[in-house]
Design goal:
Layout (H helix, E strand, L loop, with lengths): L3 E10 L2 E11 L4 E5 L6 H9 L6 E6 L2 E2 L7 H14 E4 L3 H4 L6 H12 L5 H11 L16 H13 L5 E5 L7 H17 L3 E6 L2 H7 L2 E6 L2 E7 H6 L4 H8 L8 H10 L1
Parallel strand pairs: 3-8, 3-9, 6-7, 7-8
Antiparallel strand pairs: 1-2, 1-4, 4-5, 9-10
Protein backbone atom coordinates (compact mmCIF):
# COMPACT_ATOMS: atom_id res chain seq x y z
CA UNK A 1 0.00 0.00 0.00
CA UNK A 2 1.43 3.41 -0.93
CA UNK A 3 1.91 5.82 1.95
CA UNK A 4 0.50 8.55 -0.32
CA UNK A 5 -1.74 8.05 -3.36
CA UNK A 6 -3.18 10.84 -5.50
CA UNK A 7 -5.86 10.04 -8.07
CA UNK A 8 -7.22 12.36 -10.75
CA UNK A 9 -6.57 15.57 -8.82
CA UNK A 10 -8.05 18.76 -10.27
CA UNK A 11 -8.01 22.37 -9.06
CA UNK A 12 -9.45 25.20 -11.12
CA UNK A 13 -9.16 28.94 -10.58
CA UNK A 14 -11.59 30.65 -12.94
CA UNK A 15 -10.58 29.66 -16.46
CA UNK A 16 -7.18 28.34 -15.33
CA UNK A 17 -6.69 24.63 -14.65
CA UNK A 18 -3.96 24.87 -12.04
CA UNK A 19 -4.00 21.10 -11.49
CA UNK A 20 -5.40 18.95 -14.27
CA UNK A 21 -5.97 15.21 -13.67
CA UNK A 22 -2.78 14.58 -11.67
CA UNK A 23 -2.14 11.08 -10.31
CA UNK A 24 0.87 9.51 -8.59
CA UNK A 25 1.85 7.38 -5.62
CA UNK A 26 4.65 7.43 -3.04
CA UNK A 27 5.60 4.13 -1.36
CA UNK A 28 6.45 3.92 2.32
CA UNK A 29 9.98 5.22 2.72
CA UNK A 30 9.93 6.51 -0.86
CA UNK A 31 10.82 9.89 -2.28
CA UNK A 32 9.03 11.52 -5.23
CA UNK A 33 9.94 14.80 -6.90
CA UNK A 34 7.51 17.12 -8.68
CA UNK A 35 9.33 19.46 -11.05
CA UNK A 36 8.27 22.24 -13.37
CA UNK A 37 8.56 25.96 -13.88
CA UNK A 38 6.57 28.59 -11.98
CA UNK A 39 2.92 28.19 -12.85
CA UNK A 40 3.22 24.50 -13.66
CA UNK A 41 0.87 23.53 -10.81
CA UNK A 42 3.35 21.75 -8.57
CA UNK A 43 2.84 23.96 -5.50
CA UNK A 44 -0.95 23.92 -5.87
CA UNK A 45 -0.78 20.13 -5.98
CA UNK A 46 1.21 20.16 -2.73
CA UNK A 47 -1.22 22.56 -1.06
CA UNK A 48 -4.17 20.33 -1.93
CA UNK A 49 -2.38 17.28 -0.51
CA UNK A 50 -1.57 19.09 2.73
CA UNK A 51 -5.08 20.52 3.01
CA UNK A 52 -4.35 24.20 2.40
CA UNK A 53 -6.41 24.06 -0.81
CA UNK A 54 -9.56 22.10 -1.58
CA UNK A 55 -9.58 19.95 -4.73
CA UNK A 56 -12.39 20.36 -7.26
CA UNK A 57 -12.08 16.68 -8.16
CA UNK A 58 -9.93 13.68 -7.38
CA UNK A 59 -8.81 11.89 -4.25
CA UNK A 60 -5.85 11.94 -1.87
CA UNK A 61 -5.21 8.85 0.24
CA UNK A 62 -2.68 8.50 3.05
CA UNK A 63 -2.00 4.92 4.13
CA UNK A 64 -5.15 3.89 2.29
CA UNK A 65 -7.47 6.40 3.96
CA UNK A 66 -9.08 9.31 2.14
CA UNK A 67 -8.05 12.79 3.25
CA UNK A 68 -11.62 13.90 2.53
CA UNK A 69 -13.06 11.97 5.46
CA UNK A 70 -14.92 14.20 7.90
CA UNK A 71 -15.88 13.38 11.47
CA UNK A 72 -19.20 14.57 12.89
CA UNK A 73 -19.47 16.65 16.02
CA UNK A 74 -17.26 19.49 17.22
CA UNK A 75 -14.86 17.42 19.35
CA UNK A 76 -14.61 14.54 16.90
CA UNK A 77 -14.09 17.11 14.15
CA UNK A 78 -11.19 18.67 16.06
CA UNK A 79 -9.63 15.28 16.66
CA UNK A 80 -9.95 14.43 12.99
CA UNK A 81 -8.36 17.73 11.94
CA UNK A 82 -5.42 17.05 14.25
CA UNK A 83 -5.14 13.51 12.90
CA UNK A 84 -5.14 14.87 9.33
CA UNK A 85 -2.44 17.36 10.25
CA UNK A 86 -0.30 14.56 11.69
CA UNK A 87 -0.62 12.53 8.48
CA UNK A 88 1.00 15.12 6.20
CA UNK A 89 3.37 17.90 7.21
CA UNK A 90 4.90 20.62 5.04
CA UNK A 91 8.25 22.41 5.14
CA UNK A 92 8.27 25.73 3.30
CA UNK A 93 10.99 27.57 1.43
CA UNK A 94 11.52 30.29 4.05
CA UNK A 95 11.35 28.92 7.60
CA UNK A 96 11.73 32.43 9.08
CA UNK A 97 8.21 33.27 7.84
CA UNK A 98 6.73 30.16 9.46
CA UNK A 99 8.48 30.54 12.83
CA UNK A 100 7.34 33.01 15.50
CA UNK A 101 10.29 35.44 15.90
CA UNK A 102 9.45 35.81 19.62
CA UNK A 103 9.44 32.08 20.38
CA UNK A 104 12.47 29.97 21.21
CA UNK A 105 13.25 26.71 19.45
CA UNK A 106 12.25 24.65 22.49
CA UNK A 107 8.96 26.54 22.86
CA UNK A 108 8.13 25.98 19.18
CA UNK A 109 8.56 22.24 19.58
CA UNK A 110 6.78 22.08 22.94
CA UNK A 111 3.76 23.94 21.52
CA UNK A 112 3.43 21.40 18.70
CA UNK A 113 3.83 18.45 21.08
CA UNK A 114 1.28 19.83 23.57
CA UNK A 115 -1.28 20.22 20.79
CA UNK A 116 -0.91 16.72 19.38
CA UNK A 117 0.43 14.65 22.30
CA UNK A 118 -0.70 16.34 25.53
CA UNK A 119 0.28 13.39 27.78
CA UNK A 120 3.74 12.69 26.34
CA UNK A 121 7.11 13.44 27.95
CA UNK A 122 7.80 16.67 26.07
CA UNK A 123 11.21 17.32 27.56
CA UNK A 124 12.58 14.00 26.37
CA UNK A 125 10.91 14.34 22.94
CA UNK A 126 12.26 17.87 22.39
CA UNK A 127 15.76 16.59 23.10
CA UNK A 128 15.26 13.69 20.67
CA UNK A 129 14.01 16.00 17.91
CA UNK A 130 16.90 18.43 18.28
CA UNK A 131 19.37 15.54 18.12
CA UNK A 132 17.55 14.05 15.13
CA UNK A 133 17.99 17.21 13.04
CA UNK A 134 21.56 17.80 14.18
CA UNK A 135 21.00 20.86 16.37
CA UNK A 136 21.48 19.54 19.88
CA UNK A 137 20.19 21.09 23.09
CA UNK A 138 22.47 24.15 22.71
CA UNK A 139 19.95 25.58 20.24
CA UNK A 140 16.92 25.05 22.49
CA UNK A 141 16.91 28.59 23.93
CA UNK A 142 17.69 30.38 20.66
CA UNK A 143 15.25 32.65 18.85
CA UNK A 144 14.87 32.33 15.05
CA UNK A 145 16.87 35.52 14.41
CA UNK A 146 19.81 34.05 16.32
CA UNK A 147 20.03 31.07 13.96
CA UNK A 148 21.42 30.70 10.47
CA UNK A 149 19.15 29.89 7.53
CA UNK A 150 20.17 26.24 7.64
CA UNK A 151 19.55 26.02 11.38
CA UNK A 152 16.10 27.59 11.00
CA UNK A 153 15.24 25.03 8.33
CA UNK A 154 16.37 22.27 10.71
CA UNK A 155 13.95 23.67 13.31
CA UNK A 156 11.15 23.64 10.73
CA UNK A 157 11.96 20.02 9.89
CA UNK A 158 12.05 19.10 13.59
CA UNK A 159 8.64 20.69 14.12
CA UNK A 160 7.23 18.72 11.17
CA UNK A 161 8.76 15.46 12.44
CA UNK A 162 7.40 16.08 15.95
CA UNK A 163 3.96 14.77 14.96
CA UNK A 164 5.45 11.65 13.30
CA UNK A 165 3.90 12.26 9.87
CA UNK A 166 3.44 9.61 7.21
CA UNK A 167 4.37 12.11 4.49
CA UNK A 168 6.66 15.14 4.53
CA UNK A 169 6.07 17.68 1.75
CA UNK A 170 9.08 19.90 1.06
CA UNK A 171 8.15 22.93 -1.05
CA UNK A 172 11.42 24.41 -2.38
CA UNK A 173 12.75 23.67 1.10
CA UNK A 174 16.42 24.25 0.21
CA UNK A 175 16.03 26.86 -2.53
CA UNK A 176 16.87 29.82 -0.27
CA UNK A 177 20.01 28.21 1.20
CA UNK A 178 23.65 28.35 0.14
CA UNK A 179 24.84 25.35 -1.84
CA UNK A 180 26.91 23.95 1.04
CA UNK A 181 23.98 24.32 3.45
CA UNK A 182 21.66 22.75 0.88
CA UNK A 183 23.87 19.68 0.87
CA UNK A 184 23.75 19.47 4.67
CA UNK A 185 19.94 19.64 4.75
CA UNK A 186 19.57 17.09 1.94
CA UNK A 187 21.96 14.72 3.70
CA UNK A 188 19.95 15.21 6.90
CA UNK A 189 16.74 14.31 5.07
CA UNK A 190 18.40 11.25 3.58
CA UNK A 191 19.50 10.11 7.05
CA UNK A 192 15.99 10.58 8.45
CA UNK A 193 14.54 8.61 5.57
CA UNK A 194 16.87 5.69 6.30
CA UNK A 195 15.75 5.53 9.93
CA UNK A 196 11.99 6.05 9.47
CA UNK A 197 9.22 4.88 7.11
CA UNK A 198 8.35 8.47 6.18
CA UNK A 199 7.60 9.30 2.54
CA UNK A 200 8.98 12.47 0.94
CA UNK A 201 7.34 14.68 -1.66
CA UNK A 202 9.79 17.25 -3.04
CA UNK A 203 8.36 20.26 -4.87
CA UNK A 204 11.22 21.95 -6.70
CA UNK A 205 12.53 23.49 -9.89
CA UNK A 206 16.07 22.36 -9.07
CA UNK A 207 16.90 19.25 -11.06
CA UNK A 208 20.10 18.77 -9.05
CA UNK A 209 18.03 18.33 -5.89
CA UNK A 210 15.75 15.89 -7.70
CA UNK A 211 18.70 13.78 -8.84
CA UNK A 212 20.13 13.69 -5.32
CA UNK A 213 17.12 12.84 -3.17
CA UNK A 214 14.30 11.27 -5.19
CA UNK A 215 13.57 7.78 -6.47
CA UNK A 216 10.86 8.87 -8.89
CA UNK A 217 9.85 12.12 -10.52
CA UNK A 218 6.89 13.64 -12.31
CA UNK A 219 7.21 16.62 -14.63
CA UNK A 220 4.33 19.10 -14.68
CA UNK A 221 3.43 21.73 -17.27
CA UNK A 222 0.28 23.89 -17.29
CA UNK A 223 -1.18 21.82 -14.46
CA UNK A 224 -0.76 18.42 -16.12
CA UNK A 225 1.78 15.63 -15.82
CA UNK A 226 3.75 15.39 -19.06
CA UNK A 227 6.29 12.76 -17.99
CA UNK A 228 6.77 10.42 -15.04
CA UNK A 229 9.01 7.57 -14.01
CA UNK A 230 12.19 6.66 -12.14
CA UNK A 231 14.34 9.76 -11.65
CA UNK A 232 17.41 8.32 -13.35
CA UNK A 233 15.38 7.30 -16.41
CA UNK A 234 13.41 10.53 -16.78
CA UNK A 235 16.39 12.84 -16.33
CA UNK A 236 18.81 10.56 -18.15
CA UNK A 237 16.69 9.91 -21.24
CA UNK A 238 13.66 12.23 -21.28
CA UNK A 239 10.97 11.51 -23.84
CA UNK A 240 8.89 14.71 -23.63
CA UNK A 241 10.23 17.91 -25.25
CA UNK A 242 9.35 19.95 -22.15
CA UNK A 243 11.49 17.71 -19.93
CA UNK A 244 14.34 18.06 -22.42
CA UNK A 245 13.85 21.83 -22.35
CA UNK A 246 14.10 21.90 -18.54
CA UNK A 247 17.34 19.93 -18.68
CA UNK A 248 18.77 22.08 -21.48
CA UNK A 249 17.90 25.23 -19.50
CA UNK A 250 20.43 24.35 -16.79
CA UNK A 251 23.67 26.28 -17.54
CA UNK A 252 26.48 24.01 -18.72
CA UNK A 253 29.51 24.20 -21.03
CA UNK A 254 28.34 25.22 -24.48
CA UNK A 255 25.03 26.46 -23.13
CA UNK A 256 23.21 28.68 -25.65
CA UNK A 257 20.50 30.88 -24.06
CA UNK A 258 19.21 32.01 -27.46
CA UNK A 259 18.67 28.42 -28.57
CA UNK A 260 16.84 27.69 -25.34
CA UNK A 261 14.59 30.73 -25.83
CA UNK A 262 13.82 29.61 -29.39
CA UNK A 263 13.00 26.10 -28.20
CA UNK A 264 10.71 27.52 -25.48
CA UNK A 265 8.82 29.63 -28.02
CA UNK A 266 8.45 26.63 -30.33
CA UNK A 267 7.13 24.48 -27.51
Amino acid sequence: MPVLEVRGLRRVFGAVRAVDDVSFAVPEGGSLGIVGESGSGKTTTARVIVGLERADAGEVHVRGRSRADRARGRERGRQRRLARAREVQMVFQDPYLSLDPRTSVEAVLRETLRLHFPRADHTRRVRELLDQVGLGTRAADALPRQLSGGQRQRVAIARALAVEPAVLVLDEAVAALDVSVQAQILNLLADIRERTPIGYLFITHDLGVVRHVTDDVIVMRHGAVVEAGPTAAVLGAPTHPYTRLLLDSVPHPGWDPERISAARRAL
